[in-house]
Amino acid sequence: MPETQIDSKIEPLIAVRGLCKSFDGIIATDHLDLTVRRGEIHAVIGPNGAGKTTLINQISGILRADAGTISLAGHDITAMAPHGRSRLGLARSFQITSIFSDFSVLENVALCVQAQRGHSYRFWRPAAAESALNAGALEALERVGLAQRGGDNAGHMSHGEHRQLEIAMALATNPSALLLDEPMAGMGRQESIRMVEIIRALRADHGILLIEHDMDAVFALADRITVLVHGRAIASGPPDEIRTDREVERAYLGDAGPDRGGQADG
Questions:
Q1: Concatenated DSSP letters of 134-169
Q2: Domain's final residue, options 174, 199, 217
Q3: pLDDT, tens digit, 9 for 90 and up, residues 69-83
């Protein structure tokens, strides 16, 4: 689907062109074009099985695309390993929280600072005591509202705080682009409201690709929304346009067009 006129005037931070991926004949990404601009939150939504997770896994480097290209700040990263993409400024969160529950909040984030600087994980405990690593970790925790929790055991935090911590860990790698995969998953209403505030505050310094099932959060945050069905973008534009798009409405009501042979993910 073509980009809107206003978007075409701005160099994209992330650019996906003609991206394709299938699994044993099941289409997961179908010649997809998508961009994320600096200072923008671009949300990707769609019914279960639309291909959202496959998309974010391809951009982050977990999955290799069958065809098409992915660029980050003008660099072709299509064939690049995940750690190389991270070094260029790409970071992501996952649907399932991944933290070291036996370590402190600060140590979890300091580990990410250390990894970004190319040091071995084996020496992360003494490194976490270094002032330079602590400074970077504390700055990331401040941005997600956990600056006062640095000394606490990460395993004792609430689910919502775990999600905040995971975003702090992503921020500790000093990214320009953030891939947020279901950051509100499993949250209660008050936790979701807090997460919306955190993500909104990150917009100024990052380009954000947001995958989220919470439609209230999506429409509160997104500058643009792309709707996937069977790995194909059926609509892309500002939230007000997406709200009134009849094809989007049909997709969410379960009438998304002819059978495409199934789907590989959510």
A1: HHHHHHHHHHTT-GGGTTSBGGGS-HHHHHHHHHHH
A2: 174
A3: 999 999 999 999 999
